Amino acid sequence: MRRRSIAVLAGLAVAASALAGCGGGDGGAGDAQSIEIWTMGDKAKQMTEIAAAFTADTKIEIKVQSIPWKNARDKMSAAIASGNGPDIVQVGHSFLAEFADAGALLDLSGKLSAYPELDGAKFFPASAETMKVGGATVSVPWIADTRVLFYRTDVLQQAGVSKAPATWDELTAAATTLAARGGGNFGIGLNTDDQFLPLILTWSAGGDVVNGDQVSFDTEQFKSAVAYEQSFFSAGLTPKKAQPDADMVQGFKTGKIPMFVSGPYMATLLNNQAPELAGKWAVAAIPAKSSATSVMAGSNLAIFSKSKKVDQSLKFMSYLAQKQTQESWFKATNDLPARQDALQGLVAGGDANLAVYYEQMRNAKIVPQLKAWGAIAPEMVRALQKVCVSGASVDTTVPAFAAKARELSAK
Amino acid sequence: MRKLSRHRGALIFVGPSVLLLLVFMVVPILVAAGASLTDLDLRGLADPSSVEFIGLENYRRLLSDELFGKAAVNTLLYVVIGVPLIVVCSLAVALLLNMGSSRLFRGLRAFYFLPAITNIVAVAVIWGYLYNTDSGLLNYLLSLGGVEPVPWLDQPFVAKLSLILVGVWKGAGFNMIIFLAALQGIPREYYEAAAIDGVTPWQRLTRITIPLLRYATFFVTVTTTIAWIQFFEEPFVMTDGGPLDGTMSVALFIYQNGFNLSDFGYASAASVLLFLAIMIVTAVQFRLRRSDVEY
Lengths: 411, 295
What we know:
The structure holds two protein chains of two kinds. Helices cover 48% and strands 15% of the residues of chain A. By secondary structure, chain A is α+β, with helices and mostly antiparallel strands. Chain A folds into two domains: 6-145 and 296-365, Periplasmic binding protein-like II (D-Maltodextrin-Binding Protein, domain 2, 3-Layer(aba) Sandwich); 148-295 and 372-410, Periplasmic binding protein-like II (D-Maltodextrin-Binding Protein, domain 2). In chain A, the strands form four sheets. In chain A, strands 1, 2, 3, 6, 12, 13 and 14 form a seven-stranded mixed beta sheet that branches. In chain A, helix 8 crosses helix 9 (220-234), helix 9 (220-234) crosses helix 16 (373-389) and helix 13 (323-333) packs across helix 14. The longest helix of chain A is centred in the C-terminal third of the chain and has 17 residues, at 373-389. The radius of gyration of chain A is 22 Å and the shape is globular. Chain A starts with 5 loop residues before the first helix and ends with a helix. Chain B is mostly helical. Chain B has one domain: MetI-like fold (Orthogonal Bundle), CATH 1.10.3720. Chain B has 15 helices and no strands. Chain B starts with a helix and ends in a 5-residue tail after the last helix. Chains A and B meet through helix 1, helix 3, helix 4, helix 10 and helix 16 of A and helix 2, helix 3, helix 9, helix 12 and helix 14 of B. Chain B: Its main location: membrane. Chain B: Belongs to the binding-protein-dependent transport system permease family. Chain B: This is Carbohydrate ABC transporter permease. Chain B: It comes from Hamadaea flava.
């Protein structure tokens, strides 16, 4: 329990912004030959290492600050309010539209032609789509992420499922067979907290959730996606609760949850926390109803609108976009490159999982680039939870959510 | 003016804290009240000229917001269940610990106080493990007794109770110290007189100790009520308001709208309502106290 008032906190944030509004420019880095970059997550060490070659080459020093994902938003809000921010900032796809709308990201239109490495054609098409917000180019792709189906090859084999399910019907059948093992075993782990899953299912049913710049959840495809997700819960094929990654790893280890949908970062987690499973699991493309479309997530790099070192920043971003840098970044962190030929080069190394990611990323769509998406996504998750966990009817829940989403996007 | 100079000594002592209070409490509350009448968002922070005055629109939205209603009901439940639990638990522990002053009792005192000074994130992580439905210690212990696994954090109502349990565990230690101090302030003469009259231990407790703890009880009740109305950290780190918004509190609602959705105006409106609720509840408590008998 906190004894301080939240009202006070909220008020302070606003007051601080008013007071700090006169700051402007980047406060920290004094000399012209250094730029500051904010990376999200805990990869400051790797970023510093990878920047060493750049510094040696150009004499531009790179100051790295890593910000935990959970604080990314607060930090950026404070930076926007005070005008005191880094030169380069890593922005997750889902934040791009909102930060761009707030004027936090420098408009790079017309500036990129001098940097061939930052050409959109170098990246996966879906990743390249995220460069533009409302007609202006505000960021360049950095790392990519997608969702695929993870499965235990040995467990599926034992249960008589000879290959990874490739269609909705096959997935249901496989999950039913696996759950029939009994003894508290499930068929698949579907996380009701995941905002990507309903999107992926809608896309693989051949639909979409936006129409131009309008959200449209009132479609047959979205309904069928929700109903399909619900079917796993009502048949008891998946645990009826939000599952953090740790639970997924644990369930995967014991075979209780032999399949789940997640991103490449889960592969890293499995390698670290369940090394004894090596060789007993694989990934496959998202099962299709009409197409095997997944989500293209990841983060981009953008220049903070108040930065005074635009040229140096672009130079560094161009360095980071080089094929070789992208490959070494993957080797250092397991983050997949957003640059298409870099991942292609890595696939040539013979890793079957990487080949799946590569194919999946070529068949992927991006999260709707709407300012209101940040408010719509939690409502979507809420609607899904109502349907999946408490068994609410799809026919009444979806229209109610669709109306709410329209209202939020109109704001 | 002359009056002012006469109180100079007092002003020197009181001034700084009044100033701090003004800058860090009163001004932010006023700012929040002002912001609650606008559509302030992320863009508004960068460019104040884009902020629009929208009157009471945020309040109208709040009253028709299903989630806010849910958060208000949950918060009410937190208060109604949590406050009596903390008062009773901390009083009981204090009475037991007051029975002796040996090294054992001093050790126990520290033991009960530890949760109050433990970092909430560490607390949340550990309790998260204890509460884990499939592999948690609590369900393991229950399974030894042949009890079915309890969905500690997976079912909306049970999750609420689970969080209250953590809140009580964490809050009882602090209030226990207050009760202990009050207990030790009760003059021994009362007990000696009672012993001469030959009262039973039960009478001693109900006729002397508890009535004399009235002021401490009042203090603990008021501060605990305020704390539960602002119940935030446990749901924030353990459940994020889920499952199915079953643990969403008003404070968490404010945080999510303000800092996750950047809807600062809306969050400010909710925080103003929360502030008013605290003022009213506290005022009622003081009112009820006024009719109290003084010893």
